[in-house]
Amino acid sequence: MPHRRLLLAVASASFAAVASAQQPASQKLRVAVMDLSGSALKMQTSQTGIGGMPGGMPTGVQTTTSVAIPAPAEFARGLTEMLGTVLVKTGRFTVLERAAQQQMDQEQALAAAGKTTKETGARTGAMLGAQALITGDITGFSYSKSSIGGKVSNMIPGLSVSSDRVTAEVIIDLRLIDPSTSELIWSSKGTGKASQTGVAADLTRDDKAWSAGGTTATPLGQASRDALAEAVKALIAGMPKIAWTGRVIDVRDGVVYVNATAADGMKPGLELLVFEQQPPLVDPETGKSLGAPERQVGTIVIDTVLEKFSTAKITKGDGITRGHVLRFATP
Questions:
Q1: What angle do CA 140, 144, 149 make, to 5 degrees?
Q2: 69-96 tens-digit pLDDT
Q3: Please, what's the largest Cα pairwise distance for the chain?
Q4: 96 in the same domain as 118
Q5: What three-state secondary structure class fits 52?
Q6: Are 254 and 277 within one domain?
Q7: Full-prediction pTM beyond 0.90?
Q8: DSSP three-state, residue 103
């Protein structure tokens, strides 16, 4: 756990350049970070070769060994956690809590099993109010150690030398997905590569099972950070603008509670339109969701802006309730 906290702290600092390279938007994009898959994570083979030193010098014995090492346990999950931290540090995203995502998964499982009604069953992203889902894949992974050493004869009797070189390369593909239609909005790729040479170079500094795949001082940790930094920077630079939406948390005694704060552009006097989301439209031929139409049910005006939510008063309409979608009155 201390190693994980150390990596996340250093990762936050190393990704400051990503945030500074982009001007912060007036509204943050609300995203749910899904677990990264690891198609490139697999057991690799090892090779051993024996040979002499170049130039034909009398050498005795010299051995060169290259070992390709599989990913540490929980490597993909560790990178998912790091990704969430990186996105927050850019100042462009509000990352929804993983505990809420797990609750969403449970609700969706109940809906899929027919244990809830069609009207109350959870839809992907709907319960969390996510404007987009971020997922991805570890498409490239190379992690190896090469050792060269042996006894050198006819020079200094009894001398034994060795040198280790550890090399790591990580490639990550990120995908931004529309939660209502599951369509791809944007994708980006990041590559990181790092190496370390020295006597008895460390692999993961006695922490091979660490969830983030190595400590900050190791080549694997550095390569992972660089790959994520590049992928997130490309995602921010290329993704299209997504219209802000919010949700009604609750309505109590005429007061509307909104899941948005100053970071989302809320301020007293701001007018918001309230919409009721209709059942999704599904193409009868492909079975693909085409999105869900909305029906305007009213208008609210922000009254107070607090740290974790805002309050508003109803200026038009009735029947406004929890879960209704909020949009700016003027784009």
A1: 165
A2: 778 878 888 899 889 989 989 988 888 8
A3: 95
A4: yes
A5: coil
A6: yes
A7: no
A8: helix
